[in-house]
Design goal:
2 domains, Arc Repressor Mutant, subunit A, single chain, Rossmann fold, alpha/beta, 41% helix
Amino acid sequence: MRVLVVEDERKTASFIRKALQAESFAVDVTGNGNDALLMATSTPFDAIVMDIMLPGRDGLSVLRQLREQKNPTPVLLLSARGQVNERVDGLNAGADDYLPKPFALAELIARVRALGRRANEPVTLQLRVRDLVLDTVTHLARRGDRKIELTAREYRLLEFLMRTPGRICGRMAILEKVWDYNFDPGTNLVDVYIKRLREKIDDGFDVKLLHTVRGVGYVLKE
């Protein structure tokens, strides 16, 4: 894997680079958001590890620009601030994972590996449940004649549910598969995203596809 590390704290950047190189990753490093955007758009990386607070463009700005350009490179965000609203902002901007500082290098390496595995998963070009269709290349969704606009996280959640139609997915399973790590079990993050997704794919249609199984989880089925 080739990884871009975007971190302006030189000591932290050095630790991350050495840890990844010790695991046989090829690593490029920059400490500036503008340089990071240029590098990420001109060089194919398998993953990006990026701090939020950066000189030039901040990490969220870089991330949003990449996603607007349809750049699918998995991004792991780093931040010294670990509030839930900041994590949600990062995930909504298109991040694939989030790691608050301070962190263990072993955990960072494990998460980068997980991003690489996900990027190499076999691609099914189109998923379908009844009249709901999801294009896994363009990330466009449609139900009947209606186009559905999805955020990066909503897309990931819908893709996960559509790959296992008819199977009940528990909240923790969704957190692990869609966010790649465990939140506090008491978090309502999954419920919030399910509500948003249900409004987009079911409102206005007689046949509902996204169902709640009380006390268990959620299922996408006719």
